[in-house]
C-alpha cells in the first residue's frame, strides 16, 4: 500500500492527504513557492493504529528526496516541521513538532502527531463540530523556513479578503523577524499587513499575486500562512478562511458578481447562522457613551452581560440562563466550552487571527481582542481599564464591530442587515418555490414581517389579542358568563375590541394577504389559577371548567361547536373591519378532526365571502385529508400540535421534564418541536398531502408551526410539495434563504436522478 506522497505526486485527495496536505500539493502544482515536503497519508495513520508501525523505508526515501531538493542534509542545515493534516479543519487541536533534525526524532514526532488525534481537546472539538471520530489524520513533514533568520525575515497570516467585513482587500498580520508560533499563539500583538508593504514591498506584492492565484483556483477566500526567510517568500499553508456571517454574505455576493462562482453557489454557501449574525444587535447611540478601552473588533455584534474570568464559570452561568462575557488575557483551545457558553469574549492580548478571534467569528459570538489597555488580574477576578475597576459579576458592553469596551449595560438595537444580504435575499426570491409568510398577531409584528420580506400573514393567532390585562377580563367575562344576558354583554365588548384589532391590522397589511385563525383558546391559559380570594360560587364554577388535559381539551373549533356565538362575533368583527379597510382575508379553523366541524364553521361564515381553511394539527385530520381537501379552501399544518399528537408528548412540559435526558442519551437526535421529525410527523404530513392533492391537485398547503422557520424542516417541506411556510418575523430572512437552498438542492437531486448511469469502465 502506498502511504507517502511527495511533491512529485499529483494526488490532491483530501481523504488521503488531509485538507492541509492536499492544499500544499495544489499550491506546488500552481507553481507557488512552497517549501519542499512529503505527506504520510491517512492510510499510514490507519496502518500505524493497527500495527503500531511506521513505513520506515518509505520515510527514509522521502527524506533523501527532501535532502536532494533542498541541497541540505537533515541535521546539517535541514530541519523539518511535523504537522497534522485531517480532512476537516481542527485548528490547534493536534500536536505540531518543529525544528526536527534527526531521523529518530522525526519518527517519534510522527508518532506523537498521529497519537494526538486522540487527545482530549481533539475529541471534544470533534464532538462539538460533529466531525467523525474515526477518520484519522495525515502528517506533513516539511522543510523548515525561518522567519527570524535575519532583519529581512518575518512571518504572517494573510486573508485574501477581510474575514470580518468581507471587503475585497488584503487583510492580515505580520511580525518582523519572528516565528509563526509567536503569531498564532496570540502572545505578541502583530502589526497589520500594510506594514509589510512599506518594509518589504516586493514580498508584499508577490503575496498579493499569490492571493489572487489561490482565490481563482479555490473560488473562495483563503487564509494563507507565509514566512519570509532572508527576503525570500514562502507560503506554508492555505485553507478556506473562517469568516463572520457578514463577511460570508458579502464574499458570496461579490464572488458571484465577479463571475468567480454562480448565484446558486453563492446561495448554497450561506448558512442560517450567517444570516442570523447579520441580524445581530448594535449599540443604540455609541457616540453618547465614553468607552473604557479599545481593542480590535474581531467578531461582529454588540453584547451586554456580566463579566466572568474562567470558562467553567461561563458554562455554569449559561446553565442559570445568565448572559456573560468571558474575559481572558488570551484564549486557548482548552477554553472552547466557556467560549461557546458566553455571549461574547474579550481578550487583552492577540490579534485578529488569534484563537479567540477565529473561534468566536466561526461561532457567531461577539468578540473584542487585543485590548491591551485592559489590565486583567485573574487572581483577584477583576480588570482595570480607563481608570475603572470592573469586578467579576459587573456588567459591561462590548462592540465586536468597533472593538470598544464600555462599563455597564448600554441600550442595544436590533440589526438592520446589509446591502449584500438584501441582494442575496432577492436572489433567493427568484429561485425559491415556497412562499414565506409571517406568524404575526399585531400591527407591530406585521410591520417587522413586511420589512423582512414576508409575503403575507400565514397565521394571526386571535387569542393572543386577549393577553393584555384589560382584555383578559373581557374574555374571562365571556368564559364565566352564567346567564344569556351576561354572555351577550361580554360578546359585545369582545366584538368591539376585535373590530378595533382587525382595523389596525388590516391597515398595516398594505395589500398583503392574511390568514386569521379563529379562536383557539386553551381555557386554562385564560382562567385565574389562584381561586382563594374569589367569590366561592365563582371559584366553584372555575373548578368545573378545569380540565385534566387542557391541551387535549375544550379548545379550538370544539369551543365553537358548544358556543358558536364566539366565532360569529369574530367573523362579524372581520366583516365590519373589512368594510372600513380593504383587505385580502381568509380564516382558518383550528383543531379540526372531522369534516362536520368544517361544515359547522362554514355555516357560521355564511355569505361573508371569506376563504375557509383547515389547520391540519390533529392526527385524524391528516387521516381524513382527502375529504377535508374537497371542502376546504386551503390547508395549513400546525406542526406544533401535530408533533404533540404524534409523539404523545405534552408540548408545554416536555422540555422541562425529560427531553434533555432523551437527547443526551441519544434516544432522540433532535428536539422534535424545533426540527421536524421527518420519519414520524413528516410521514404523516406526506400521507395527508398525497390524499389531499389526489382530490384537489392545486390545493394551497402551508405550514405555520415553529418548524416553518427552521432551515432543515423547510428543506423537507419543499420536497413533499408544501406551498408556503409561515414563521415569526425575525426568522423570515432565514426562511427565504432556506427555501431557495431547498429549491436548488431539489432541482439538483432531480437532475441527478435522470442522469444516465456512467458507462462501465474496465
Ligand atoms: C401549531 O399547533 O403548530 C400552531 C401553529 O398553532 P399553536 O401553536 O397556536 O397551537
Ligand atoms: Mg395549534
How would you portray this structure in words?
The protein is of the alpha/beta class. The chain folds into four domains: 1-144, ATP-grasp fold, A domain (Dna Ligase, domain 1, 2-Layer Sandwich), CATH 3.30.1490; 146-243, ATP-grasp fold, B domain (D-amino Acid Aminotransferase, Chain A, domain 1); 280-413, Phosphohistidine domain (Glucose Oxidase, domain 1); 432-521 and 556-750, Alpha-Beta Barrel (TIM Barrel). The protein is built from 31 helices and 33 strands. The strands form seven sheets. An eight-stranded mixed sheet has the order 14-24-23-16-17-18-19-15. Strands 26-27-28-29-30-31-32-33 form an eight-stranded parallel barrel, surrounded by four helices. Strand 32, helix 30 and strand 33 (724-727) form a beta-alpha-beta unit. Helix 9 (245-257) crosses helix 15. It is elongated. It starts with a strand and ends in an 8-residue tail after the last helix. It binds phosphoenolpyruvate and magnesium ion (MG). Magnesium ion is lined by residues 590, 617, 638, 640-641.
The CATH class of the largest domain, by name, is Alpha Beta
Which architecture of the largest domain would the CATH scheme give at its second level? Answer: Alpha-Beta Barrel
CATH superfamily of the largest domain: Phosphoenolpyruvate-binding domains
| Contiguous uncertain segments of 5+ residues | none
